[in-house]
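Support reply, case 0932

Customer input (verbatim):
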Amino acid sequence: MDNRYFILILILVGIITMMGSLFFSLIVGFFLVKVGVDIENIDRFKIHVRMENNSFLSKIFTVKELEYCYSKSNPAVHLAARYSGKEAVIKALTSIDALIPEYNHIEILNNGRGVPVVSINEEGFDNYKFNISLSHCDDKVVGFAVVEK
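Our regenerated output:
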């Protein structure tokens, strides 16, 4: 994707989210729907890729996430995308006063079709439904999460 289009998309997402103080809510039937968004620089994760026994990575990511990211030719992109996704999930959960799970209890893995799927490995999140979208360009990633309760 051309950087100009990615930046335009980020600006539009930013405008939408600023209208609702970085997240907005809708009441749809009996469901409470919240949105969170996060943008990260990929360079922030390049230094962590080269470090062995990195405590930062183990506090943020699950073993399965690390295995997935390191199986790719550019792990920093995938680490940054998953981190951005986790931040987006946390922002959406914060807006409904939900308990906030530890980062490494939020797991973002791809399903059989390559679509990212969120699962939270803590009690109390069985009644939540998560949808997430991750995207990137040369130097940035964006995570967009929708949480339904």
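We compared this against your earlier run and they match. Two observations from our side: Residues 21-29 have pLDDT under 50 and may be disordered. The CA atoms of residues 43 and 139 lie 7 Å apart. Please reopen the case if you see a mismatch on your end.
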